Amino acid sequence: MTIKKKNMTKLFPFLIVLICLFFIFACSKTTVVSVLPVEESFKTPLAKEWSWVRENTETQRISEKGLEIQLEPGSLMGGGKGVKNILVRPLPEEANQVSVEVEFIPENQYEQAGLMLYCDDDRYIKLVKEFVDGEPWIVMAVEIDAQNPLVQKIPAPGDQVKIRFSLDGDGVTGACWNQENADSPWMAVASFSFPMSPRPMIGVFTQNGQPETERWACFTNFRITKEAAE
Prior knowledge:
The chain folds into two domains: 1-30; 34-225, Sandwich (Jelly Rolls), CATH 2.60.120. It is 13% helix and 45% strand. The chain has one helix spanning 2-30; strands spanning 38-40, 51-53, 60-62, 67-70, 86-90, 97-103, 112-120, 123-132, 135-144, 147-155, 160-168, 171-178, 187-193, 201-207, 216-225. The strands form two sheets. Strands 1, 3, 4, 6, 11, 12, 13 and 15 form an eight-stranded antiparallel beta sheet that branches. A seven-stranded antiparallel beta sheet has the order 2-5-14-7-8-9-10, with no helix packed on it. Residues 2-6 and 17-32 have low confidence and may be disordered.
């Protein structure tokens, strides 16, 4: 009995270390901790936190202009799958705003490029510049479990726009700003509810390209901040 007690005493510190490591690992899987603001010019190699969903290296590039992604055929709406070159990174728990600048001139129906809160192909919320019925729009849409898409749109204010998600619990508000007119105000697009558990990724994407058309969208100055929208 004395020998067993001595052995247990020797093992006790080792067990404490294992328990601590378990809790550290469990927390790291559920909470994304990041130093804010996160700033990405997209003019230099991507930070290690970024990852591609269905990467196609032939239709994306980093240049002095920014991150350029060519529109390819495919859509996520409804039962759509397989959109290529969705670029995502973890969304920090303390994030209140996410924005990016987009230069993109769509010309064909439903061509689009913009921001996305992304869980998977059937669970996301997007804020995009999109061509609909002959005109460019800023469109916000949410889809959960491939059902009940909610869509709202306003006319696009220019060729170069800055788009922004403002986050408040499960509430997500989309807005846009005309970069070609520094005096122009931010324009609200829509506010939707979107479940934040499990925590979505945040990123940029394009979709609904035409097979016979080579069209690119350029992304620059991606930011994640703690500050709430004014």
